[in-house]
Amino acid sequence: MDYGEELTAYGDFIKGTCNLMCPVNERKLRERERLLHPLERLEHPVSDVSNIIHTKRNLRRNGNYLADPNKIVKSFSRSAAGHKMPSPSDLRPFPALDMTVSYLIREIACNNIHTAGWVDRYNFVTDRLRAVRQDMVIQNLPSVDCIKLLKPMVKFHVFAAYWLCESPINVFDPKINSSFLQECIKRLLNMYDIIRKTANRDVTVDFNQAKKQLVYKGEYCNEEHLICALYLILNLGNAEALNQGIARLRFYGGCCQSCIESQAFEVSIASWHGNYNKVCKLIRNLSPLLGMAAAINLPSIRRHALIVMSTAYNNKTLKFPIDVLEETLMWNNQNQVVQDCKYYGVVVEKTEDTKLYARFQKETFNLHVKQLPPFRLQWLDKTLSDVALAKILADHC
């Protein structure tokens, strides 16, 4: 069957037939062009003495490495003018995509997080997940399948945004990661809306599809609360996110009053009102995943708080204890408080008893400097071992 016949056979949308994590054609191409990532290489390719001469010749030509069929994953390839649509043999159906996402999250992303080399794993997983989304869109997979693929991607990008937030820009670009995160979470929320509307629609549907939709009332419903809570925390105080949250809380009624989404909604409302003290108190009670999402927004919360305090405590005789400021706005130590205060123009003084105080003056606060980047929180880091991360990212993966 040639390419044209394949397209005709599979209808309006191409259906993939590759059951591996990487198509054979791509594997051969990347071996030939030496485009294998270190995580995809076969460490000990010589297994048969009778083939040792042929193997050595291949090793020399391919930069001393061959691809491990169990580790190589399809890489992202940007579509461009003049490129024809991919063949079904180059696209992975849902079972292969699900297997790929599970492998990337469980075996790659959840290991060695405390080493400096984890950023290489992040770059590898990010690229391969983009390829998964590309295959998913080209095939127009059902919403129930898209949800299972997108859910771990959202969690992964939230963790990466937090874990690598202190890395230099040439190592980790938070804006690019944020764009991937927003793309995944908005698409995921849209899929939940489609599933909810379809499950409630009184029409005749395929039995297997109806069975999948009924699961929404259990697993999908609980997971939707988590993803919606993440969306609220990532967009603290955002009017659009709050309006969507209000609509969902009304839809679910009393069953959602004590759920995780209700907690996130309370944090976002407090942020919208400018109540930074309440925001920080509520953040301490969030789950680790939501806590990581909230930590990304803490620089904005702190800056707003310092602006408010520069007006409220605008008096030459008033002093505010640095240790209280540290506890209230969730800094790790007093050195960080002093550095941030000086950056924004807040005067810090040391008294005779060696205690540090901030002296707020409205006219000295610098509104023109860029917002400081986030940093990791010590109390949150203690909960993130390799085992805990696997539970957070790979749960239901």
TrEMBL record:
Limits of the SAC3/GANP/THP3 conserved domain: 21-349
Biological process, per Gene Ontology: centrosome duplication; spindle assembly
Superkingdom, natural source: Eukaryota
Protein name: Germinal-center associated nuclear protein isoform X2
Cited InterPro entries: SAC3/GANP/THP3 (IPR045107), SAC3/GANP/THP3_conserved (IPR005062)
Any single Pfam family the record assigns to this protein: SAC3_GANP
GO-annotated cellular components: centrosome; nucleus; spindle
Organism: Frankliniella occidentalis
Coiled coil start-end: none
